[in-house]
Description:
There is one protein chain. This protein has 6 helices and 9 strands; from the N terminus they run βαββββαααββββαα. The chain is of the alpha+beta class. It folds into 2 domains: 4-102, no CATH class; 111-196. The strands form 2 sheets. A 5-stranded antiparallel sheet has the order 1-2-3-4-5, with helices on one face. A hairpin with a 3-residue loop joins strand 3 and strand 4 (49-56). The longest helix is centred in the last third of the chain and has 19 residues, at 172-190. The mean pLDDT is 82.
Amino acid sequence: MRKYKLDNRTLQLLNAQVNLTETFTHTLRSTPRRDVLSFRLKVERSQSDTLFTVELGSERHTLTLPNEKKKMHLKLADFIEEIVNGPFDPSSSADLLTLPHASRRFGTFEAEQRQQVFELVRTGGTLSLDMGFDLPIQIALHRNITRKAVTTIMSIGVKKPRTRCFTVCGSDTEMYEKIVESINHLAAEATPAAHAA
């Protein structure tokens, strides 16, 4: 089971730090007890690749990635979590609950999910929309009988949830387009580091 995880703030920092040559100090937190583990990250950037050195206590681990590599900070995050937690085991059901950062497809809005949202606009109801983040986006739509409108409540998160609440008027297609736009904005706002990748 993945005990220690990098949070969104640290992912944002790593996204910027992979382009610098410097030494940084970060922490990992465990779930659910919130134990803290500190490590040092040394970044040495050259023309063609970047060398990352992770120092955890007396241990020292290195990783070299080519500079043109996309999602470099997510691959680094997976490397750091693997050092602390041990290798990712795809046969373990506990490890499958938290996929490696670089394997996740953040903010993907599949055709099947779009159809579910459109049906929700037509009928009203609730939907839990999994877009690859740690938590799904919760959507509740109330259809107004007297006019062509829906009242929408969306949220992502538990402790400090990001929410949106609004009413949209128009045809089913127009309402659907505005709701999809709001879903994309909420996803980008809730997890900026992951979504930017």
